[in-house]
Each structure stands twice: as structure tokens, then as C-alpha cells.
Amino acid sequence: MSTVPATRPAADEFEFLGSRTRLLVDADQTDGRFSLIDFVEVPAGQMPPLHVHHAQDEIFYVVDGEVTLYLPGREIHAGPGDCVFAPRGIPHAYRVGDRPARWLVMSSPAGFERFVAGVAALEELDPAVLAGVAAEHEIEILGPPGMLP
């Protein structure tokens, strides 16, 4: 494992489900232990499909704006400086507040960053294709945006 530079080249920026993201640390740099993605700008009101990660835990650290994380039987409201843990195997979704937000997502072990890059490379974002790419990365899409666990 080598020391990771503070920033990565612009080539590591992706458009992911309508959000501008930047890969900060990937599996190659951490021997697969974790990855770190900067969700630089997530549009107000954005909500991904209800999903579950079967292989990675996620940690969300909110830098700016507000986001609500939905887990079975729980809603967690997070703002700047809040950190939220979303364990693998637990269905979840989130909704951004009334203005754009920014957060960091660490996944452990690494791998989520490969899903982000795979989705960003799609020419068209079709729900069936998204579900297929997700399945390749041990993520299961459980329902459309707006569906809660």
C-alpha cells in the first residue's frame, strides 16, 4: 500500500445518477480495504432507488446541505458535520433536502467506487440496465426512487 495524494486528477470525476462525484481513494490504493468518494454536488430532492449493498458497509459524512437516510423503521436526518453508518445487508435510500448537498461516502471493503464508475459509463440510464450493473457489484435494487424500506 502506498501513500495516497490529497487530491486525484480530474479524470476521476464521474456523473453518477445525476450527481457530480469525485473518486478520492480507490481499492488499488488501500489493498481493497476501503474507498472514498466525494459526492461533490447532489441535486436538491434527489433520491436513488431503494437498494441494499450485500458486500460493503457505507459511511456518509455530510459536508454541506441536508440529507435524510431511510433504513427499515428509521429515518436519520443529517446535516453538515453529521456522520451516518449504513451497514451492508440493510435496505436503504436517501433524499436530499431542499438545496443541493455534498457528502463523502466511505465503503468498506472497497468496491462501491467500481459501481459508481460503471454507472457513470452507461450511455443511457435504464432501470433494468442499472439493476444489472448493480448486481455485478453485489448491490440489489429493491424498488424505484421514492420507495422506502
Task: List the defining traits of the structure above.
six-stranded antiparallel β-sheet, mainly beta, Jelly Rolls, 149 residues, 44% strand
Kindly describe this structure.
The structure is a single chain. By secondary structure, the chain is mainly beta. It has one domain (10-137): Jelly Rolls (Sandwich), CATH 2.60.120.10. Helices cover 13% and strands 44% of the residues. It contains 2 helices and 11 strands, in the order E-E-E-E-E-E-E-E-E-E-H-H-E. It has helices spanning 112-120, 127-136; strands at residues 13-16, 19-25, 35-42, 49-53, 57-64, 67-71, 74-78, 83-86, 93-96, 101-108, 139-145. Strands 1-2-3-10-5-8 form a 6-stranded antiparallel β-sheet, with helices on one face. A 3-stranded antiparallel β-sheet has the order 7-6-9, with no helix packed on it. A two-stranded antiparallel ribbon has the order 4-11. Strand 1 and strand 2 (19-25) form a beta hairpin. The longest helix is centred in the last third of the chain and has 10 residues, at 127-136. The radius of gyration is 14 Å and the shape is globular. The N and C termini lie far apart (38 Å). 25% of the residues are buried.
